[in-house]
Amino acid sequence: MPTTCQQDELVTSVLEIDLGAIAHNYRAYTAQVSDSTRVAAAVKANAYGLGMEQVSTTLANAGCTDFFVANLEEGVALRQVLADAHIYVLNGILPGQEHAFGAFRLSPVLNSFEQARLWRDYAEGRDALPAPHLHVDTGMNRLGCPVSEVEKVMALRGLMLGGVMSHLACASTPDHPLNDEQLRSFSTVTRMLPDLPASLANSAGVFLGEHYHFDMVRIGIGLYGGQPPGLAANPLRPVVRLRAQILQERDVPAGSSVGYEALYKTGVDRRIATIAAGYADGFPTGLSNSSHVVIGGQRVPVVGRVSMDLMTVDVTDVPLHLSSPGNWAELIGPEMSIEAVASAGNMIPYELLTGLGQRYSRVYIDE
């Protein structure tokens, strides 16, 4: 016969997402720029893995009106949540997508002359379409129209743009010379297009100074608690806390191996706990023998190779009543920031957040 059980009985890992912290971080960025500079939110990749619907609704309630997504599918999904927001699609537009962009009132970010011509041809004779933005490549050499082609794009008769933007490649390294090079290049473009609103700075770029702000800044990782580089005081709040339960604990004699491929061996007798999280949950094998978790307020090392569903940690120095099965380990939180975990796994915080798996029970709080 079918049976029922409480949700808590099914959960061995919990990802807490603080929506209040996201709203705080949005307001912290608005305080960094002038009243004439809009603060847009990047909610691509399911809001960096934290839930597009919940995050974008929170941001809209905090006053955000401009949102950036990666592709058309994300734009359509976001339009179901936010009826009146300005939604920009960073990947631009491809042939065959024109009707969807128009039907869902999405603004393509035009990355080439071909995309600009495609949109111009579609928009001709159609009213009430959103204005696209032109993305100019100033040094990333990824997406974007080369500076040398800007005049060619602007020569397209009937093309109506809503803004011009570029993307900083090295904003997380404040003293990198490419930052100034890109600023100079983008400033050249804005002088060519003096009537168009301009956008250059991302989360880290905001802290490079007001010359990088222009008319709009586009905030991604900073909304989700990423540490701005080079600041003595962090104005942002952490957003995520990830916990997983201890499943088993055992005494392992000296000279024994732990985990696949025997990559870790005990030098002396140790006590090892197994935790309900692994690379299928977004904790890759790069964290093997390099990262830490927090149990009972104490940092303990990850030992052995992280496997698909499990990881093992050395709890020899943790009191037994805190490390026994059923207790919780903190994988990300106040004592283990996303920067610390990402660095231990040779990742960047973006990669860590967007890779967090779907098996976690997601809990949204507003503190």
What proportion of the residues is helical, as a percent range?
A: 25-40%
Unreliable runs: 3-7
Radius of gyration: 24 Å
* H/I helix tally: 12
CA-CA gap between termini: 41 Å
CATH architecture of the largest domain: Alpha-Beta Barrel
Q: Largest sheet at a glance? A: 9 strands, parallel
Shape: elongated
Q: How many domain regions?
A: 2
Q: What is the residue-averaged pLDDT?
A: 95
Q: How many beta-strand runs?
A: 19
Structural class assignment: alpha/beta
The CATH superfamily name of the largest domain is Alanine racemase
Question: What name is given to the CATH topology of the largest domain?
Answer: TIM Barrel
Strand percentage, roughly? Answer: 15-25%
Give a description of the structure.
The protein has 367 residues and is α/β, with parallel strands linked by helices. The protein has 2 domains: 32-224, TIM Barrel; 240-365, Beta Barrel (Lyase, Ornithine Decarboxylase, Chain A, domain 1), CATH 2.40.37. The protein contains 12 helices and 19 strands. The strands form 4 sheets. Strands 2, 3, 4, 5, 6, 7, 8, 9 and 10 form a 9-stranded parallel beta sheet that branches. Strands 1, 11, 14, 17, 18 and 19 form a 6-stranded mixed beta sheet that branches. Strand 8, helix 9 and strand 9 form a beta-alpha-beta unit. Helix 2 (19-30) crosses helix 4 (52-61) and helix 11 packs across helix 12 (349-355).
